[in-house]
Structure formats: structure tokens, C-alpha cells
Write a structure and sequence with these properties.
100 residues; 4 helices; mainly alpha; 0% strand
Length: 100
């Protein structure tokens, strides 16, 4: 879970940088339309899975049993983390490309 959280924070930083760049300079980021839409869908799907599997958790306490049942697209939490790494890599490549 800690690695997933760290990956989400890193991905969020990349997305914030992309957002700042898009609003401050005239840059064409249409190449990111599909990856961004896919990432948004992934986030919504994962949220739905989490809501489904937090039956034993409460606001201030998360059940370990709930987290062990969490599966997205046949993958466990590390599979989800790897998917986020792929999105982050895609967005970082776009950032480097636009900074050239």
C-alpha cells in the first residue's frame, strides 16, 4: 500500500506539472488525450472496486482483510501500481517532449 501511495503521489506531481504547462504556455498536448481518458477511467473503476470491498473498514480504520481482497482487472495492488507506473512514464515522456 505504501508503494501504491508513493506512486500515486508521484503521478499526481507529473499531472500537476502538465496542467501548469498547459495553462502557461502554448503547447499541443492532444497526444495525451487517450492516455488521460484511460487514466481517468482507471481511477473511476478503481474507486468503484474500493467502495465494493471496504465492507469491513471504517472512517479511521482500514481492514487488512478488505485490502487483501482488492483486485482490479485480475491484478492485485502491485499490478495496479505497475499500471500507474506506465501512466506516469507516458506523461513524463510527454513533459520531456514539450520541454524540448
Amino acid at each position: 500500500m505504501r508503494e501504491l501511495k508513493e506512486e500515486l503521489e508521484a503521478l499526481n506531481g507529473v499531472l500537476e506539472t502538465l496542467q501548469e504547462m498547459a495553462s502557461n504556455i502554448d503547447v499541443d498536448l492532444t497526444m495525451l488525450q487517450i492516455p488521460l481518458l484511460q487514466y481517468g477511467k482507471t481511477c473511476k473503476d478503481v474507486e468503484a472496486v474500493i467502495v465494493k470491498f471496504i465492507t469491513h473498514s471504517y472512517r479511521s480504520w482500514t481492514s487488512f482483510r478488505d485490502w487483501t481482497k482488492l483486485i482490479y482487472l485480475g491484478e492485485d495492488i502491485s499490478g495496479l501500481r505497475n499500471m500507474l507506473v506506465g501512466y506516469k512514464s507516458t506523461f513524463m515522456i510527454a513533459l520531456r517532449y514539450t520541454n524540448m
